[in-house]
Amino acid sequence: MSMHLTEIERVKTISKEDFYKNYVKNQKPLVVEQLTRDWPAFEKWNLNYIKHIAGEKTVPLYDDRPVSYKDGFNEAHKHMKMADYIDLLQKEPTNYRIFLYNLIQEVPQLKQDFKWPIIGLRLIKQLPMLFFGGENSKVFMHFDIDYSNILHFHFHGKKRCILFAPDQTPFLYKVPHSLISREDIDFDQPDFEKWPALKKAQGFVCELNHGEMLYMPEGYWHYMKYVSPGFSMSLRALPQKFTHLAKAVYNIFIMRHFDVLMRKLRGQKWLDYKNKKAITKTHRNL
Q1: What is the mean pLDDT of the chain?
Q2: Average pLDDT over residues 9-23
Q3: Coil, strand or helix at 62
Q4: How many CA atoms lie within 13 A of 96 on its CB side?
Q5: Has this prediction a pTM greater than 0.85?
C-alpha cells in the first residue's frame, strides 16, 4: 500500500491573472515548466558555475541526524568551503545539505541571473534563499515558520517533492511546538503498521526538473528528496490569509523561543515528550 498522492498539475507557462485566480486564491499547488526559460540562470546555473563564482565561500551544512536538544534553532552541523562541498556532491551521495542560505547576498552577481517573476504575488525581494543536496538526500517533512507562499525553482538534476495542505496536519504526526512531523517516518515508503494515520492523508507529488518552478501555497507541508545532486531557489510572499499571518507571528515570536527555552531547561526529556505526544495526539484524532 502506498500513500494517497495526486500528481501536481503542470503548465508550460501561465498568466499573472490565471495564476492568482486559480492557484493562489484557491491555495492549490502548481508546477510551471518554462518560467525560467528567459533567465540567464536557465543556461548558466549548474553546480560547476556555482563552484566557479562562490567556491571560496564558507557555507553551513545540515545532515539528517535527529533534532538534538543541544542544537540551537536551525544550527548548522558542519561548515565547508562551497568548492569542497560541490566536489563532494559530484563525487558520491552525501546527506549534507545547504538549507535556507542567502548565497545571493554573499555573491551579488547572481542577482543578474534571474528575474523576479510578475506572477500576482508581492515577493519579498530581500529573501531569495538557496538549497543544495546530494543524491538521495532528504529534507524531512515540515512546513515553513512564516506560512509564506513559496515559488520553488529547481536547477541541475531532479528533485521529488511531496506536499500536504495544512488541513492534513491531523494525519501527519506533527511534533508539538515545532514545524516538523516525526523524523523517523520514511515518506518514500511509510510503515502503515507503525504510522496508521498516514493512510488517511491526501497529498500531492511531483518531480521537478532543471528550470521548473513549484508553487507551494501557505503553510503547506513539504518533503523533498534530491533524486540527483542539485540545488533550488525559493522566492517568498507573505501569507494572505489573516489566520495564517497570525500563526506565522506566533511561530516566530513565541513558539520558537518557547521551544528553545524548554530544550535548555529539560534537555532530551523535552524532545522525548514531544515525539511521544505526536503519536498519542495523532492516534487520538483517529
Answers
A1: 94
A2: 97
A3: strand
A4: 19
A5: yes
236 has a pLDDT exceeding 80: yes
pLDDT-derived band at 195 (thresholds 50, 70, 90) equals: very high
Question: Is the pLDDT score of 73 beyond 70?
Answer: no
Contact 97, 134 (CB under 8 A): yes
CB atoms within 10 A of CB 89: 27
> How would you label 128-137 residue by residue, b for 16+ Cβ within 10 Å and e otherwise?
bbbbbbbbeb
Cell numbers linked to 197:
494515520
- Write a three-state SS string for 148-181: CEEEEEEECCCEEEEEECHHHHHHCCECCCCCEE
The DSSP H or E segment spanning 7 is strand 4-7
* Per-residue pLDDT tens over the stretch 82-125: 999 999 999 999 999 998 899 889 999 999 999 999 999 999 98
Confidence check: pLDDT of 161 > 80: yes
Q: Which of 159, 148, 118, 125 has the alpha carbon at shortest distance from 18?
A: 118
Angle between helices 256-266 and 268-285 (to 10 degrees): 120
d(CA 159, CA 223): 10
What pLDDT, on the 0 to 100 scale, is given for residue 168? 98
Strands 129-133 and 230-237: antiparallel
Helices (H) and strands (E) in the chain, counts: 8, 14
How remote is the C-alpha of 26 from its chain's centroid? Answer: 21
CA 5 from centre of chain: 18
Any idea what DSSP says for residue 216? Answer: E
User: What are the grid coordinates assigned to 13, written together?
Assistant: 507557462
